[in-house]
Amino acid sequence: MATVLLVEDDDHVRQAFLRELRDLGHAVRSAARALDALRDAAANAPDVVVLDLGLPDLDGGEALKMLRAVSDVPVIVATARDGEAEIIRLLQSGADDYLVKPFSANHLHARIEAVLRRTRTEPRRQALVVGELNIDLDRRQAKLRGDVLQLARLEFDMLAFLARNAGRVVTRRELLSEVWRQPYGDDQTIDVHLSWLRRKMGERSTAPRYLHTVRGVGVMLTAPE
Ligand code: CA
Prior knowledge:
This protein is α/β, with parallel strands linked by helices.
């Protein structure tokens, strides 16, 4: 059983599939617009996405490309178009499987199971774990106590670099060169990003848990006692 994100703008179809997939034992969330689906996929990391290609706000192929930019979640595209060229193009741009409409919930269920069997046997993702902090490098997603942290790109890069060096003081110079890719830069930039990161992790510099500033030197990430 899987967490499924169902993207379908037709209310009637969406409701029917929601109900039937739940009856088949899946946890299902749904979205009627591509942008909502992208947001959901980034925030909640579903096991599989079922993506209708005819959506009101974005072309399905475009939506797939954007989804691929933020996540490598398995995607089954649901298409009314059965042109071979279209299907080949979608599989090449990152779809894992496709279904041509109309199809039954049982058929979709079988495809979901098949896609998950394939993807779950692949090697495990590269992850960094520090205490209750879990950083999925492939998916570029960090979770604290199971909750996804909404991090900007540089915040994620900084956290990942600190996690790779957990338990050691990382100097400002290292952060500038490894995260910002600038050997010389403004210390304030680091401070600002660090304070955002700290806030998103729910801690304060006066009462650090994971992020410890060492004055005049740098910062160290450690698991709390
Ligand atoms: Ca549609």
